[in-house]
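WP5 quarterly update. Target: Integral membrane bound transporter domain-containing protein. Source organism: Duganella aquatilis. Length: 355 aa.
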Amino acid sequence: MMLKSLLAHATDKANLLEGMRAASASAIMLLLGCALHAPDFAWAAIGAFWTSLATASDTARNRLASMLSFAGLSTLAGGLTTYAASFGIASGALAILVAVTAAGLTRIWGAKAYQVAILAATACVVMVDRPWHGGAGGMAYLGVYLFGCLFATALSMLIWQIRPFEREQHSTTWQQALVRTLHEAAKTLRDHASLSSDGAHFALRLGIATTVAYLTVHLLHLPYGYWATMAVLLVLQPSAAGTWPRSVERALGTVVGTIIAVAISGLAQSPLAIAVAVFPLIGLTMALRPLGYGVFVAFLTPSFVLVADYAMPVIDEYNYVLARLENNLLGSAIAVAATLILWPLTERLRRKQVN
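Structure tokens (predicted):
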């Protein structure tokens, strides 16, 4: 009965078409890389997937704006972060601090802006450790990455429109639209005034915690350390009450995903096999995302493990996924510690004021 209820819940919330579209964008990039014998197209697949995640789903205009904003912002910020890190760990840490804190500040302006910005910051913490050898060639992968972002945008807006007439179903006069826009603007300004202090605290906490994770994995020489910085970015919430359950969900989802990754990696040995295996995994990652963060992470883990294998095959798959699990747990622990150490009194005072 419980399984039946869960399946019914999944059927109600999962958007399989959205998942298939995101999976198609990423898988096509990997298949193109196979045809061209270009492992760097793994970056195009990652860009396509992240662009799909950053997509606003309410109107066609917001969808296009969110996808293009993410494509441009993540490419530019990722390139600047990579360049800064080429001067050493200290400059890389400073770049991470600036990029992540700026992304955290966008939460003041709403969930849509924060979604784009935090995913762009995720691109920064993943790209920061990519070796840069100087010259235009050192940044060539950014062009491939941007191509993947733009391909996902074109697929969503021009080629495969899942709800092409959705924006025409809500017929309103221009007067009603103007009143609604003014009302939303006023509400945003009120929210901005009330959240600006809390938003600044959260942004600094997020930036400091992510930078601590970056420095920790480099000083300890931990392999695949970007999994720890990504965990901080995606786990840390404005309050400890929100961070704790999210860290537990990420830990459990990572364990399940790691088991899936080990099983599939033993079967998918060639780039073509990896490209084929990535399609259902990314499709399920996107489609089942509304069911909860733990489910999302469970399918996200093997997806990125396989894409990483595509770009740079690893000899010891077991140690690779184990290192990924350890870094995720490290990042989650840093996120929880940050909520308890950095400005913990602001949350308590806010609760007292509400009560």
